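User:
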Amino acid sequence: MTVRATFFDTPQRTSPDLLDEQVTHVHAAPMVVAMLEGVASPAALLNADREIIAANTRLARLTGAGRAQLAGRRIGEVLGCVHALEQPHGCGTTESCALCGAAQALREARVRQAPVERTCRIRREDGSFGEAAFSADINCAPLDVEGVRTIMVVLRDTSDADRRRVLERMFFHDALNAAGGLQGLLEAWPDLSPEEAISLAPMASRLASNLVEQLQAQRDLVAAEAGTLAVNRVPVRPAPLLDELRQLYAQHEVGEGKTVVAQVLPGAPTVMTDPVLLRRVLGNLVKNALEASASGEQVTVRHSCDGPRATFTVHNPAVMPQAARLQVFQRGYSTRGVGRGLGTYGARLMTERYLGGTLRFGSNAETGTVFALELPLEP
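Assistant: Predicted structure:
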């Protein structure tokens, strides 16, 4: 079987001897080193193979490595991008790199020999959760350092601003929709006949529940990212939990014209977990599955046990586009529009950092899309 060398940019790496020569050459130009240190953001000089040959203190601080340790590595590699080492030749050569703003900017700046600016979002390896979201504006500009062609890269960290922007767009959009619908119904309520009031009471209850759901979800997500989310593990019976979700989303607006089926094997053991967080994660996945499904289609949420672990799966028949599959857990990405997309990111964050489990997915024409949440039966 032939191994593909790259899915995006050039795969070759600089030989160690040539790399040493480039590093020595650049550091022999004191103005260049002073220029890097004078940049108020993480910055580096890259060679023709996108490898770092000089970096400032701010980049070393961001990556947690000494400046000497950065030499010969690529931007995604030093930032801890979860995709950087998926291919033998590293950052810039994976499937995900084609969608990465940093990889796009580097290639375009090299090819055009002109400055390029892009926005990039990176999933980084980080501590107990395993991953953290990093957003930045990246500026790439060709620079000739006494005969050596380099690209100067400057990163402006926008993680906090990006997080707030996504939170605001998603939260206020969904919460205001629910609140606006409830407000309109309540304003008309005094003029309703008793029969009309009775028929519209379930709608009012549903709108109020949706609003509370949005408030609680955003509160929990903010606490989860801050590391302050409380976890209360108790024995949870899978059957009542999944049936509750089935009933909830059978009446939810996203479930209109669609069917939600819950399947639990008889005698399934209890799971020691936080029922509120587990319900939040599974509910999010069910809602996403319903949004991706067409009228008349079925979403199935299933529980099974395999040894010491319990597995919850959420299935829908739709197939994700390739771009969605590569970015599904990226904070800020959504197939539903700009600024949405804390759903699967938040679900994975809560699952892996707080519930001690794993969340993975698969999507193809034969099976549709399946999200699988695995939890230990014991804490």
